[in-house]
Amino acid sequence: MTGGPANTLPLRRVSAVLSLALVFLQPARLQPARLQPARPSAQNAGAERDAWQRPDEVMDALGIKAGSVVADIGCGAGYFTFPLAARVGSKGKVYAEDVKEDRLAQVRSRAKEEGWKQIETFSGADDDPRLPLASVDVVMIVDAYHEMRDCDAMLEAVFRTLKPGGLLALIDGAADPGRPRDEYYEHHRMPEQTEREDAERNGFRFVRERPGFTRTDDKKEYYFMIFEKPAKTT
User: To which H or E segment does residue 141 belong?
Assistant: First the structure.
């Protein structure tokens, strides 16, 4: 026989075919994923939050001073708890309350590390912060009331916790009124008028409204209302 099989390709053509195949068999070069713009931090602590939340102004508005007893209800990781501890000093008291034990553990750990003996943590329930009765000068509920579905029971418990003449501060995300309450829970905000009506229904007297806040990363707006537990009359 003088040649190979009729369907055998010349060597140069085989080489060209193989080279082309290698090109297609190489892993595809992936284009870098188009990254979404990085969203700024949630600003739950530190100087960035201080710039828009203005904790010193909040404490001034509530008359918190050395020796005060203050409850930070829904304290989270303690953004307000520690400035409050600094303000009330060694003769004051800060009750840091939350329903999430991991958050309370964070507060306890930091308080121990930094030597804040005036901070005491409380594991609360959905309808009761479980704080000592008639023992607190000021209760603060910051960006947390909108989570409280048993709001009347909670406000009744807060009322019992305050001394006569004690103050309640409600700071929360603003929302347009007129929607079902469940929708506000889902969006983590509550109309100002709803919270005012809740507080007044449970015995609190509206005192005044202070300038609110605008969170810088997403422009979420907050209001700041102050109520009083009326002093007993004779």
Answer: strand 136-142
- Cα–Cα separations (whole angstroms), residue 56 to 60, 61, 80, 166: 6, 9, 10, 19
pLDDT value at residue 225: 98
Read off the pTM: 0.78
Residue with tokens 């979420």, as numbered in its chain: 220
User: How do strand 119-123 and strand 162-173 relate by DSSP bridges?
Assistant: unpaired
Task: Decide: 213 and 196 in contact? Cβ < 8 Å.
Answer: no
- The residues that bridge with 72 in the sheet, in sequence order, are 96, 140
CA dihedral 36, 40, 41, 42 (to 10 degrees): -100
Place of tokens 């994923």: 33
Q: Which string of DSSP letters, residue by residue, matches 36-56?
A: PPPPPP---SHHHHHHHH-HH
Confidence of residue 183 (pLDDT cuts 50, 70, 90): confident
**Backbone dihedral angles phi then psi of residue 121, each to the nearest 5 degrees:** -95, 150
Q: What is the DSSP letter of 217?
A: T
What one-character DSSP code corresponds to residue 150? S
Q: Check if the beta carbon of residue 19 is closer than 8 Å to that of residue 26.
A: no
Give the Cα separation of 117 and 140 in Å (integer): 20
The single-letter code of the amino acid at 26 is Q
